[in-house]
Amino acid sequence: MPEILVTGGTGRLGVPTVDALRRAGHAVRVLSRRPGAGRALGDLVSGVGVPEALEGVDTVLHLATSGLSRDEETSALLFRAAERAGIRHLIYLSIVGVDRIPMPYYRTKLAVERMLEDSPLPHTILRATQFHELVTGLFTVQRRLPVLFVPRIGFQSISTLDVAARLTELAASDAAGRVPDIGGPERLSAAEYARRWRRASGSRGRVVTFRLPGKLYRALRERRNMVPGPPYGTRTYEDYLAERYGAVSPG
């Protein structure tokens, strides 16, 4: 049975994606620099082990990211190796708004998208909104402050479980190019996210909103990080908070 290779399979999204793929009956191996059950040793920086990891693989889910410009180099290495290996389908996860929000990391993600589109690889590109964990990180770094500073922007955060479910659907399908973006079930202001996090975490910090100038914040205020139309995700931010912190108290 052909296997699926997942890069970034030990990360925040990779773990639930690997679990979802296996529950769906797929044979999965995870590209990793460290040995372990279900792993194939390989390094996307040096390229060592990557051709061997692709042997017998039919589909690749490329979820690995460093958050730095090196992503272009590692993705190019993977794409070349996948082409040589005759991979039938390569799936790449990107972010909603990479072509409309002026952030360095987003420019890198867009460059990888275009690199894949220009390659001969049969591929699918899926863009998702920010994960619930990312939004939460904006607040947890301030947990010891008496005030919770929040920019006047909004999010449509999505559960990694919902993204994993969509990736599993795509892995069972043929290459489709760019597929519709997916977002979470709610579009909320950052201040409302902060208030919900505050209740769930027990933080006493007072929520204070502020406005910032510049193209980046204008793009976020214009909701370029959100998906118009019906949402794909079903797990709300409060569902995530309840799992992370326990039951969310009302008020």
Walk me through this protein's architecture:
It is built from 9 helices and 11 strands. It is an alpha/beta fold and 251 residues long. It has a single domain (3-245), classed as NAD(P)-binding Rossmann-like Domain (Rossmann fold), CATH 3.40.50.720. It has a 7-stranded parallel beta sheet with strand order 3-2-1-4-5-6-9, sandwiched between helices. Helix 3 links the parallel strand 4 (57-62) and strand 5 (89-95). Helix 1 (14-23) packs across helix 6, helix 3 runs parallel beside helix 4 and helix 7 (190-201) runs parallel beside helix 9. The longest helix has 16 residues, at 70-85. The chain is globular, with a radius of gyration of 19 Å. It starts with a strand and ends in a 6-residue tail after the last helix.
Topology:
Blueprint: E1 3-7, H1 14-23, E2 28-32, E3 39-41, H2 50-53, E4 57-62, H3 70-85, E5 89-95, H4 104-118, E6 123-128, H5 132-140, E7 147-151, E8 154-155, H6 160-171, E9 177-178, E10 188-189, H7 190-201, E11 206-210, H8 215-221, H9 237-245
Parallel strand pairs: 1-2, 1-4, 2-3, 4-5, 5-6, 6-9, 7-11
Antiparallel strand pairs: 8-10
Please indicate the count of domains.
Answer: 1
Strand content bin: 15-25%
Helix content: 25-40%
Alpha-carbon distance between the termini?
52 Å
- Characterize the biggest β-sheet: 7 strands, parallel
Name the structural class. Answer: alpha/beta
Spatially, the strands of the biggest sheet line up as 3-2-1-4-5-6-9
The total of helices stands at 9
- In total, how many beta strands? 11
Oligomer: single chain
Nearest-integer average pLDDT? 94
CATH fold call = Rossmann fold
Computed CA radius of gyration, to the nearest angstrom: 19 Å
What would you say the CATH architecture is?
A: 3-Layer(aba) Sandwich
Global shape:
globular
In CATH, the homologous superfamily goes by the name NAD(P)-binding Rossmann-like Domain
